[in-house]
Amino acid sequence: MHKFSLYEEARDLKIKLKTNIFLGEASWKKSANICKGDIIPVLLRNRNNGTKYLHSMRWGTNLFSNDTQNAKQLQNQARDDKLLSTNNNNNNPWPELVANGQRCVIAARGFYINGYTEVINAKYKTKYNDKQPYYVTPYVQSEGEFFYIAALYRVQRLWSTINKYSVISITKSTQGDDQLQGYNQRMPYLLRPRDIDEWLNPKVSIQHIFSLKYKIRYNQFKAIGLWINNDLIKNENQILRTRFEWDLEKDATMTGMHEDNFPWDQIEREALKQNNAKKNGIDFKPKSSWDELRPKKKAIKQAIIIIDDDNSKDEDDGELKQEEYTQSNDGNNNNNIRKRKKSTNYDNEPLKKKQKMNEKENTNTCPTGKRETSTSSCCP
Hints:
Structural class: alpha+beta
CATH class of the largest domain: Alpha Beta
CATH topology of the largest domain: hypothetical protein yedk fold
Oligomer: single chain
Strand order of the largest sheet: 3-1-8-9-14
CATH superfamily of the largest domain: SOS response associated peptidase-like
Number of helices: 11
């Protein structure tokens, strides 16, 4: 398990996990794409009174230094078979954590797995594996709303009064789970809700918990897009979108169109309607096809011309002269009337109209009745 989802507010977590204490509540932000190095809430048990409480910890620990800012150097998972080994060294510090009773539980709404299909390109005669991520959620009626993942926490003392907490999730092989075989070789060690108290109790041996044989029921796996590969995207609505929508956006970005100038929503609506119509065997003609939505060079030029015409109309309206005068009546009432008169500026008029207006202004009539222009005269 490389990533999981916990899209819940802090107040909702306290209600659903039945606890009133959340240490480090301000550092938790709900996320549907929790990666290595993120801050997550962890369920712990107080050794004095046995009450449960939440604590914010970093998912992943650095075994060789106190630096936890670089996510590439962090280790966030531990194999279940290494917890019981007797070799205590720097590369395997997990038996020491088990001996100290530093157990905890990670709550997750779901986790992500990858399925690979072999694709053959007949044109170039090559093969490649197409990665398809899936979102796995628990069957609510039997497992509840959350997955409960067995984990260990580690405390690193920086100063005399400052401690740094980190958590490591435990994984097991997928050989015992028929539903997850063929996807990943390892899966998170999931606990049943009734086994949480035994796991948090340090007096109960881990061998006893690992010997319990049970199956966790899942909902049908949901195929999602590749937004999960981007660690910066945390919104659940975008992460859980379908692969079809992701492929559609990828094809659009390959055309070189900018996000601000391209009608993404219109493309998605028309494409989804056309896809649903094909599944139901209905003939559907989209209002606008993909090629029509692309801004072509001719369309851009026409848009520029239209904008210029609109600007010229605004200039003509600005050149209108306004005259005000007062008309007096017998009843000593003054009525203000605004009169608008066009100016005789024909610079923005078409060429033929300009020539006609210029000829009218420059022509005069001579005594003989013939027309006389400014350049030629009929009279001596």
